[in-house]
Amino acid sequence: MAKINRIHNILMAGCACAALAACGADDIASPGTGGDVIINPTPTPTPTPTPTPTPAAVTPAAGCPTIADPKGLTDEGTISSANGDAWRVCTLPSIIAKSITLPKIAGLVYQMKGRVDVGCDSGFAAPTASAPVTSSTVGCTTANGFTLVGGQLTADTNVTLTIEPGVIVYGGTGTSWLAVNRGNKINAVGTASAPIIFTSRDNINGNSTENSMGQWGGVVLMGRARVTDCNSGGSVGADTCERQTEGSADPAVYGGRDDTYNAGTMKYVQIRYSGYVLGSNSELQALTTEGTGSATTLDYIQSFNSSDDGAEFFGGTVHMKHYIATGADDDSLDADTGIQGRFQYVLIVQRPGQGDALMEVDSNGLESDTPRQNTIVANFTAIQSQVSSNNEANDQASILNRGNSDLSLVNGIVVSPNNECVRLHGTGTAATRATLTARSVLMQCNATKYIGSGSGATAYTAADVAAIFSGNNNNDAYTASLSAVFINGAAETAATAIDAKTLDSFFDTTTYVGAVKDANDTWFAGWTCNSAYAPFDSTSTARRACTSIPL
User: Fold this and answer.
1) What number of CA atoms fall less than 13 Å from residue 87's CA on the CB side?
2) How far is CA 197 from CA 191, 280, 543, in A?
3) What is the dihedral of CA 93, 94, 100, 101, to 10 degrees?
4) How far apart are CA 312 and CA 261, in angstroms?
5) Interatomic CA distance for residues 416 and 386, integer angstroms
6) Residue among 523, 514, 518, 522 at smallest CA distance from 379
7) Who's near 410: CB < 8 A, 6+ residues apart?
8) How far apart are CA 159 and CA 121, in angstroms?
C-alpha cells in the first residue's frame, strides 16, 4: 500500500511540474523574489459596507442651571426614551416673576407642569402710580415675587422669558401650557440649524407617532391690541373691552387699544403635538395670539399635529412670515375677532384624510363690531390631498370665509382635488357680510369648487363665489405640478403673480405664486421636523423626524 502511495505522489508531482513548465514567465513569480505562485487567482472579496452609525445616545446633564427667578428650576431627575436617550428634567416655576433665560445645555430639557405664566396680567393699559390696576391673573401677589402697592400694580410686571437656540421645552401634563400675559414678553429666537422645540412628554420618551396629537396645551401670547366680541368690559371700542382665553378655567385676559403692542419674538420655533382640551368644546392650538400688536415678531414657526387649529389669531394686528402648519386636526390657519392680519409665505399640508378647513376666517359673534377683520394671505401653498373626515360636517370647504371679515388671497395655490375649495357665507347686513378678494390664485378642486351660503338677502350663491375668482390672474381649472409635495413646478411657474407690497408694506415683493418658488428656494429646510406626508429635508437623519428629539 505504501508503494502504491509513493507512485501516486510521484505521478502527481510530475503532473504539477508539467503544468508549471507550460506556464509563461509572467504567470510565475521569479525565483528568489519571495513571490507567491498563483495559478488560479482568487477574486478580491467585496468589502463589507460600513454600517450607518446609530445616533449617539443622549447623556443627562449633571444638574439644572441657576435662573434669575428666586423660585428657580426644580430638578426632577431624568427622563428616558426607547432608543437609550436620557435627559435631565428641569421644571419651570408655575409663575415666572423675574426675567429669566433658559440656556441650551446638552442632555437637558425643560418641563412645564400645568400652566406656566410669564409675569402676571398687567391690565388693559400699562398701569402707573396714578392709574394702578388690580390684576386678575391667578398668583399675581407679592408672595409670588411681584411688586404691588396696596394690592395693586403700578407698572407692568415686565417679565421676559428668553429661550436660547436649540432648547427643548415640553408639557409634562396634558393641561400644560405657556401663558405670556399682558405687560410681559417672550424672546424665543432659535436658528435655522438649532430651532427651539415646544413638545410633549410622550415625544420626549419616544411614545409619539405621526398620528399623535393633543398631548399638551400650547403657547399663548396675550396683548393689548384691539379685539371684538368682548367677553367683558362693555361694547367694543370702550377702554375695557376684553376677552378671556378660549377654554381657560382661570383668568387669562387679553385686549386693549394698543395695536402696536409687543408681546415679544418667536423665530425658528417648532410646536408639536399640542391642542389639549381645556374646557367644553375649547382647545388650545399650537400657537394662539390674542390681541398682540404689529411690534410682535412671528417668523419661521412650524405647528405639527395640533388636535385643534395649527394656529389661531384672536384680534390684534398680526404680522407673520414663514408659517408652516402640518397635520392640524381642525383648521390650519384660523383668524378671528377683528384681527388685522398679514401673512406671507404660508405652507399648509394636512394629514391625509384629516383636518377641517385649510383656512377659516371669521368674526361671527357680533358682526357690527369694529374693527372689522381684514386679513391678507400672500404667497401660500395649501394642500389637502384627500377628502377630509371633518371637512364636510363643519366648514364644508378648504377655505371658509364668513362673519364680519374681509379676506384677500394673493399669489396662492390651493390643492384640494377631492373637496370644494371655497365657501363664502353671508349674514348680517349688506354692509357687514363677509367679503373675499382673490388675485393670482390657482385652485385644484372637485367639480363643485364653490359653496355660497348664508341667510336672507345677504346670502351668497356658488355663482357669486365663482364670479370672484373670474379674472385677476386666477385659475380654478389648474392641475398641480408640484414636486416634493409643495415645490413649484411648470404649471405654477407659468402663473402670473402680483406685487403683494402694493397691498401692504409688510409684504415682500415676489414674482411667483405659492410659498416655495422652486428647488433653490429652501426657506423651509433645516429648522423644521419631517413627517411621512410632509418631508422638508430628504437628506436629514432620523433625528429630524417629528417623532424624535434632536441631539
Assistant:
1) 26
2) 11, 28, 13
3) 80
4) 18
5) 7
6) 514
7) 376, 377, 378, 379, 438, 439, 440, 441, 498, 500, 503
8) 11
Asked whether 464 and 434 are in contact (CB, 8 A), the reply is no
Report the C-alpha gap between 162 and 106 in whole angstroms.
Answer: 18
Report d(CA 156, CA 32) in Å as an integer. 95
Using DSSP bridges, classify how beta strands 277-279 and 282-283 pair: parallel, antiparallel or unpaired: antiparallel
What does the alpha-carbon distance between residue 85 and residue 509 come to, in Å, rounded to a whole number?
A: 45
Which of helix, strand or coil describes residue 203? helix
Q: Is 266 helix (H, G, I), strand (E, B) or coil?
A: strand
pTM of the model: 0.88
| CA angle at 153 for the pair 151 and 154, rounded to the nearest 5° | 125
All three cell numbers of 41: 487567482
> How sure is the predictor about 518, in pLDDT bands with cuts at 50, 70 and 90?
very high
Q: Is the dihedral angle over the CA atoms 229, 233, 238, 239 positive or is it negative? A: negative
Summarised one tens digit per residue, pLDDT across range 203-240 is: 999 999 999 999 999 999 999 999 998 887 665 545 57
pLDDT tens digits, one per residue of 128-181: 999 999 887 888 999 999 999 988 999 999 999 999 999 999 999 988 999 999
CA dist., res. 491 & res. 509, Å (int): 21
- From the CA atom positions of the chain, what is the Rg in Å? 31
User: Could you give the dihedral angle defined by the CA atoms of residues 513, 514, 518 and 524, in that order, rounded to the nearest 10 degrees?
Assistant: 150
* pLDDT tens-digit map of 457-482: 899 999 999 999 999 999 999 999 99
In whole angstroms, what is the distance from residue 216 CA to residue 249 CA?
A: 15
- Grid cell, residue 462, equals 356658488
Residue 210 contacts residue 350 (beta carbons within 8 Å): no
Cβ pair 58, 107 in contact under 8 A: yes
Q: Are 191 and 130 in contact (CB under 8 A)?
A: no
> Is residue 442 within 8 Å of residue 451, measured between CB atoms?
no
The answer to whether the beta carbons of residues 61 and 95 sit under 8 Å apart is no
How far is the CA of 217 from the CAs of 113, 119, 326, 351, 534, in angstroms?
11, 18, 17, 20, 23
Please write the tens of the pLDDT for every residue from 392-406. 446 789 999 999 999
Which H/E stretch holds residue 7?
Answer: helix 2-21
User: For residues 450 and 420, what is the distance between their CA atoms, to the nearest angstrom?
Assistant: 6
DSSP at 545: B
Q: How confident is the model at residue 502 (pLDDT cuts 50, 70, 90)?
A: very high
